[in-house]
């Protein structure tokens, strides 16, 4: 069961999405201030907490943050973002065994960075979601691999005869950051937000 966004966060997302849909060439100029909103960070925390996961390089766990007080912890994070002193920590690298005996690297950000990243996702995804093709299923809210399989099955039943499956091996290890930054700048003119996304 998914965790529904609070009303104010949902209204923010709907406003951003409606503007993006109505104006396909519009560049959003005021986004950074949305990252440190209390409701956005609180919801980002809830989503990250629900996902769980191990501690990052700082050793900080969800349980320890809860013991010390989530609200105070979120206030400190909001203050760092607001004052533009927030800097992401290094990512902890672990190796996950694969069925073929090889290992794949996995990066584990700190919980602080996960919450900040999730806040950015909450603000940015409604803008970029409207630009994605209907056929895209990966990494989209409300869509899964099973949904993609169902769609392929439906197309096969209507007369299509070919399926092309592609997997870009190690893509995230060699992602072209310059091209990604250019794509982000196509919709975002908020220089502070763009600078944060580059870090």
What order do the helices and strands come in, and which of them pair?
Blueprint: H1 7-22, H2 32-35, H3 38-51, H4 62-68, H5 70-82, E1 92-97, E2 103-108, H6 111-129, H7 145-157, H8 177-187, H9 191-198
Helix pairs in contact: 1-6, 3-5, 3-6
Secondary-structure-derived class: mainly alpha
The gyration radius over C-alpha positions equals: 19 Å
H-E order: HHHHHEEHHHH
Sheet with the most strands: spatial strand order:
1-2
Most strands sheet: 2 strands, antiparallel
Low confidence ranges? none
Number of strands: 2
Number of helical elements: 9
Q: What is the residue-averaged pLDDT?
A: 92
The backbone outline, from C-alpha atoms, is globular
Question: What percent of the residues sit in helical stretches (DSSP H or I)?
Answer: 40-55%
Fraction in beta strands: 5-15%
**Distance, first to last CA:** 33 Å
